[in-house]
Design a protein that fits this description.
Elements lengths: L16 E3 H12 L3 E4 L6 H7 L6 E4 L3 H15 L3 E5 L3 H4 L2 H9 L4 E7 L15 H4 L6 E5 L5 H13 L5 E7 H5 L1 E3 L19 H13 L3 E5 L1 H5 L3 H11 L3 E3 L24 H9 L2 E5 L5 H4 L10 E6 L13 E4 L2 H17 L7 H13 L14 H12 L4 E4 L3 H9 L8 E2 L10 H11 L5 E6 H7 L2 H7 L5 E6 L4 H10 L12 E2 L2 E2 L3 H7 L3 E5 L5 H10 L5 E6 L34
Parallel strand pairs: 2-3, 2-4, 4-5, 5-7, 6-7, 9-10, 9-11, 11-12, 12-13, 14-15, 14-16, 16-17, 17-21, 20-21
Antiparallel strand pairs: 1-8, 18-19
Length: 597
C-alpha cells in the first residue's frame, strides 16, 4: 500500500487472540505507522491502554484535538505518508471536524480514528455520543462505524489504502468502546476487495497525444500546475516537461516548490494574490494545460471571464474535478506523474517529427509583464517593520532546505510570494478551507516527520492565538519548531478588505495586542511560560539579528514576536467576484495592457 512505511509483518501474530484495541494497534503497526497524535477520553481508554505496549508507535499527546488533526496533516504533507490522529467520542471527535475538512479540501492523506460509545448506547443520546461518521460523511473520502471487533483490522487496512491512493484524502474510522474491549482473533487481510473503488492512474493514450499535439502547435501555452503534482511526487517529471516545451509555468498556492522558483519558466503563483505575469499569462493563453489543479475560484476570478480564448487540457486523478468548473476540451484522467511522463514521450516524438512550437513572441510578452510588474511592497513609515521584508529575509536566512508552514491571511500570501521555494514539500499551508490556527500544530507534525530540517511556522497574531497551546506539546515532546508571529494587532486580511471595500470601518478586526500600554498577550512571556525561547523585534534594524538568534536555538521551540506595520497590504489583488483582467498591481492601479490582444 502506498503512502506509508512498510510495517511489521502481520503474519507474526495472525490468528492470535487479543482485544479489539490490541488488534487496532497491531493493525497500525502492520501498516507502518510510527506516530499518532491525539487525546484520550473515556471511550478511547482501551486503545490508549493498548498503545502503551507498542514499541514502534510514538504517541504524542496534543493539547487540543484540532491540534492533533492539523499535526497529522503537517506530518502527511511533509512526508507523503498517511498522518494519524486519535480522539475520543462526542466533543473529542467533533473537534476533529475542522482538520478533517481541511484535509479533504487539500487532498491530504489522513486517517482519523475515533472511539464511539458502546454499541448498545448508539442512537440513545448517550453521554458523549456524537454521530461522527455521519457528521464527517461529506468531508471524508470514506467513513466507517465499526461495532464488530473482527472487522477492525480489515477496516484499518482499507482506510489506509483509500486515504493514500487515487486522490488522497481523509478517512474516518469510528470504533465503539465495546468493540475495543471485546476479545477477537487478529486477522490481517491478504487482499482488499473494495467494491467500486478503482482509482485510475494510467491516462488514456489518445488524450495525452492530443495534449502533446496542442503543446507543439500553440502560440501562447501555459502549464497550470496544482497540488496534484505534489501528491504524485512528480516534480522531477514536471521540470523535464517545462524544459522540453519551453512553456511558461504557474504554480498554485498548493504547488509552490513543484517547480523551482529559480527555474526561468516559473512565473510564480496565479490567482487572487498571484503575480501579474502568472495571472495575465493565464488570461491571454491560447492553451492551458492543467496538471493536478481544479480551477478554483481563487485562481479563476469571475469564472465566465477566465482565459476566454484558451483551449483547456485538464489532467486530474479525480474524474469529478474535470469540467466541474471549466469545461475541458481534452480531459485526461490519471496520476500526474504518469500523465507528465507520457506527455514528455509524446512531445519528444513530435519534436523528432519536426513539430515544435515557436514561443519567442509569447515569451517576449510574458517577460515584459514580469519585468514591468514584479512583486514588491510599499515601504512603511520610518522605524516600522515591513512584514514582507521579515518574511523575505526569513526565507533567505533559513534557506530552501527548510520547511515553511503558514497560517491563513496576509502572512500566508506574503509567505507564498516572498520566499523562494526550490523543492517540493517545503511549503505547507491550508489552501481550500483557509483554516486559521493551522500553522503551529501543522509545523509540529512536519517537524516530527522531518526532524532533521528546520521548520518555521509563519503565523499571524490572530492565527497564533487559536492553537498556540501546542507549544506545550512541542516542548514536552522535544519538537523544536520555530514560530514567526507577524504581529499587526489585527485580523490583517479582513482589515485589508475593510480598508478597500468597507470605508475603513474596522469592525471586529482589532486584536488589541497593544492595549493601554500593555501587550495582551505578551507573546514573549507566553512563549516563556510554555518553556520556549521568546524573542521580540520592533525595529527594522534588528530583523537580521533576531532571525539569527532564533536560528541558533535548536533544542527548544522559539517564538519571535515581529511587531510590524499595521496597514501593510497584500498586492497584487483580484477582488472577489471580478475578472482577472481587473487585477490591481497596487491600490487603485491596474496594469495597462491591450485587452484586445
Amino acid at each position: 500500500m502506498s503512502g506509508h512505511r512498510h510495517g511489521q509483518d502481520p503474519a507474526d501474530r495472525q490468528g492470535e487472540s487479543m482485544t479489539g484495541a490490541q488488534s487496532l494497534v497491531r493493525s497500525l503497526e502492520s501498516i507502518g505507522v510510527d506516530v499518532v497524535f491525539g487525546i484520550p477520553g473515556g471511550t478511547m481508554l482501551p486503545l490508549y491502554d493498548a498503545l502503551m505496549d507498542s514499541t514502534s508507535i510514538r504517541q504524542i499527546l496534543t493539547r487540543h484535538e484540532q491540534g492533533a488533526g492539523h499535526a497529522a496533516e503537517g506530518y502527511a504533507k511533509a512526508t507523503g505518508r498517511v498522518g494519524v490522529c486519535l480522539a475520543t467520542s462526542g466533543p473529542g471527535a467533533t473537534n476533529l471536524v475542522t482538520p478533517i475538512a481541511d484535509a479533504y479540501m487539500d487532498s491530504v492523506p489522513v486517517v482519523a480514528i475515533t472511539a464511539q460509545v458502546s454499541s448498545n448506547l448508539i442512537g440513545t443520546d448517550g453521554f458523549q455520543e456524537a454521530d461522527i461518521s455521519g457528521i464527517t460523511f461529506p468531508i471524508t473520502k470514506h467513513s466507517y462505524l465499526v461495532t464488530d471487533p473482527t472487522e477492525i483490522s480489515r477496516t484499518i487496512a482499507e482506510a489506509f489504502h483509500i486515504a493514500s491512493t487515487g486522490r488522497p484524502g481523509p478517512v474516518l474510522v469510528d470504533v465503539s468502546k465495546d468493540a475495543l474491549q471485546a476479545q477477537t482473533s487478529f486477522t490481517w487481510p491478504n487482499k482488499l476487495e473494495l467494491s467500486g473503488y478503482r482509482p485510475v492512474a494510467r491516462p488514456h493514450g489518445k488524450q495525452v497525444r492530443e495534449a502533446a499535439r496542442l503543446l507543439v502547435t500553440s502560440r501562447r501555452p501555459v502549464l497550470y500546475v496544482g497540488g496534484g503534482v505534489m501528491k504524485a511526487q512528480a516534480s522531477a517529471e514536471l521540470r523535464v516537461l517545462a524544459d522540453l516545451t519551453g512553456a511558461p509555468v504557474v504554480t498554485t498556492l498548493m504547488a509552490r516548490g513543484a517547480l523551482p522558483d529559480s527555474h526561468p519558466g516559473n512565473l510564480g503563483m496565479p490567482g487572487m494574490h498571484g503575480t501579474v505575469a502568472a495571472v495575465t499569462a493565464l488570461q491571454k493563453a491560447d492553451l492551458i494545460v492543467s496538471l493536478g489543479a481544479r480551477f478554483d475560484d481563487r485562481v479563476t476570478g469571475k469564472l465566465s471571464t477566465f482565459a476566454p480564448n484558451a483551449v483547456i487540457v485538464h489532467a486530474d486523478i479525480d474524474p469529478a474535478e474535470i469540467s466541474k468548473n471549466r469545461v475541458a476540451d481534452v480531459p485526461i484522467v490519471g496520476d500526474a506523474k504518469e500523465v507528465i511522463s507520457e506527455l514528455v514521450a509524446d512531445i519528444t516524438a513530435e519534436h523528432a517529427a519536426g513539430q515544435r512550437a515557436d514561443l519567442a513572441a509569447w515569451w517576449a510578452q510574458v517577460d515584459s509583464w514580469r519585468t514591468t510588474y514584479p512583486l514588491g511592497y510599499a515601504e512603511p513609515p520610518e522605524g516600522e517593520i515591513a512584514p514582507q521584508a521579515v518574511i523575505a529575509r526569513l526565507g533567505q536566512v533559513a534557506g530552501p532546505e527548510s520547511v515553511y508552514v503558514s497560517g491563513v491571511g496576509q502572512h500566508q500570501m506574503w509567505s507564498a510570494q516572498f520566499i523562494n521555494y526550490e523543492h517540493p514539500n517545503r511549503w505547507i499551508t491550508s489552501g481550500g478551507l483557509g483554516t486559521m490556527g493551522f500553522a503551529v500544530p501543522a509545523a509540529m507534525g512536519a517537524k516530527v516527520g522531518q526532524p532533521d530540517r528546520t521548520v518555521w511556522a509563519i503565523d499571524g497574531d490572530g492565527c497564533f492565538q487559536m492553537t498556540n497551546q501546542e507549544l506545550a506539546t512541542c516542548v514536552i515532546n522535544n519538537i523544536p519548531i520555530k514560530v514567526a508571529v507577524i504581529n499587526n494587532s489585527s485580523l490583517g486580511m479582513v482589515r485589508q478588505w475593510q480598508t478597500l471595500f468597507y470605508d475603513e470601518r474596522y469592525s471586529g478586526t482589532d486584536l488589541h495586542t497593544s492595549h493601554g500600554g500593555r501587550r495582551i498577550p505578551d507573546f514573549v512571556k507566553l512563549a516563556e511560560a510554555y518553556g520556549c525561547v521568546g524573542l521580540r523585534c520592533e525595529n527594522p534594524k534588528d530583523v537580521d539579528e533576531t532571525i539569527a538568534k532564533a536560528m541558533s536555538v535548536n533544542d527548544v521551540p522559539v517564538v519571535v514576536d515581529f511587531v510590524v506595520h499595521r496597514d501593510a497590504m497584500v498586492w497584487p489583488m483580484v477582488p472577489a467576484g471580478v475578472s482577472n483582467d481587473d487585477i490591481q498591481y497596487v491600490r487603485g492601479v491596474s496594469p495597462s495592457w491591450d485587452r484586445e490582444d
